[in-house]
Amino acid sequence: xxVRRAAKAGFCFGVKRAxxxxxxxxxxxxxxxxxxxxxxxxxxxxxxxxxxGVGVVDAVEQVPSGGTLIIRSHGAGPRVLARAGALGLQVVxxxxxxxxxxxxxxxxxxxAGKQVILVGDKKHPEVQGIVDWTDxxxxxxxxxxxxxxLPGAADMAxxxxxxxxxxxxxxxxxxxxxxAGRLQICNTICHATVARQQAALxxxxxxxxxxxxxxxxxxxxxxxxxxxxxxxxxxxxxxxAPELDPAWFAGVRVAGxxxxxxxxxxxxxxxxxxxxxxxxxxENEETKQETTES
Length: 294
Ligand code: F3S
Description:
Number of helices: 10
Organism: Desulfotomaculum copahuensis
Function: Binds mRNA; thus facilitating recognition of the initiation point. It is needed to translate mRNA with a short Shine-Dalgarno (SD) purine-rich sequence.
CATH superfamily of the largest domain: 4-hydroxy-3-methylbut-2-enyl diphosphate reductase, catalytic domain
Family: Belongs to the bacterial ribosomal protein bS1 family. Belongs to the IspH family.
Binding site for isopentenyl diphosphate: 41, 74, 124, 218, 220, 262
Bound molecules: FE3-S4 cluster
Binding site for (2E)-4-hydroxy-3-methylbut-2-enyl diphosphate: 41, 74, 124, 162, 218, 220, 262
Largest sheet: 4 strands, parallel
């Protein structure tokens, strides 16, 4: 079985930067170092960072005094930063510059009196952080159906969570055009996301089965898997190689592999190696069966 890898897969610029910042911080700071929430949605990488001395807290208040708080690539709202400042914590801001741009735009547009609409997942910390930068004014919609329920407004602006599929953002924009007197469109979707989604779709069209490697809690990994499934190809999401099931590759000549933006290269390589092994195993079994039958 041949295993083809998507032209763009794995760590994006913002995640790479956040991990490097966290490693440097652990090396250089004396006091305890914690990230607010797991630094990225990949348990294996979080475990590695933990061994280097980067712990995880759920709330700013859990960081002991004299400690350092790392803000992850998803960013955080001003209220979080204010709480950290009030507690005298040192803050290392690993917010991805593309997320920081969305935060800045949202704040400026809300301050200019526009009704800000954010297309994204309400529960995602990036979205919650951006809303916080508008002082809670921005309204989050997950798709066009929710946008259709919004009241009209004279002056609206629309932004996207950086990992949104472009088609969903465009569908919301189309709905808002019918509701807003004036609509300012700020496409804050990150290129890394678009490139990974396009590469995954392109590959899904040429293989019999797709595997998406990435943390179970990673939103962009889940979206890659959904896109491939919607393209009509059987798709399986795994965190690590041992989760691969030989049955997925029975009769498969060419399989595809992609990975979310928070999946490290070593996991992608392990998964690719194991897929090849399983492909060979199933091929050998199929040949054995054919020989016995004839
Ligand atoms: Fe940043 Fe885009 Fe990655 S927003 S964290 S480079 S997916």
